[in-house]
Amino acid sequence: VQNTLFIYATKTAYEFLGGLKQTRIAALAYISCTLGISSVKITATIFIVMNGRGAHWTLQPSFLPGMCVGEVVDLIWMIFNAVLPVIISYCRLKSDYPLVISIGMKEPKYISHEEGTELSETQPLRTGGGSGSRTKYESAMDA
């Protein structure tokens, strides 16, 4: 639902559907069918939970031979919620521009108090560290 509303709100057009108008028609048709079949399935599921058995209308024979109405509802729901999203996402993958995320920062500069020059992280320290000398912020700890 959110992706369909995003496509509609941002006026996204797909040429393989025929442009903006046909993209919006396809988006509204998809969301209408998905919400319709989902509401029928939820209604049938609530009836099963409350009564412990399937609703009478779900057990009736359907237009598909060997399947009852409840099975057809489940099949249509599965197509709209499992199969079509994969196909739609693949088509959008091929049509939309990818999102590029770049993480970076400028190299920090440090000012040497002794010389007044700038140092960077790639330059070695001139004092302190393992040389045995201590800067004014370092002190030996006695325990």
* Largest beta-sheet characterization: 2 strands, antiparallel
Overall spatial form = elongated
- Alpha-beta content class: mainly alpha
Provide the spatial order of strands within the biggest beta sheet.
1-2
Tell me the layout of helices and strands.
Elements: H1 2-9, H2 20-51, H3 69-95, E1 109-111, E2 118-120
Structural features, described:
Helix content is 47%, strand content 4%. It is mostly helical. Helix 1 runs antiparallel to helix 2 and helix 2 runs antiparallel to helix 3.
Short recap of the structure:
The chain has 143 residues and is mainly α. It is 47% helix and 4% strand. The protein starts with a helix and ends in a 23-residue tail after the last strand.
Key features of this structure:
mainly alpha; 3 helices; 47% helix; 143 residues; two-stranded antiparallel sheet
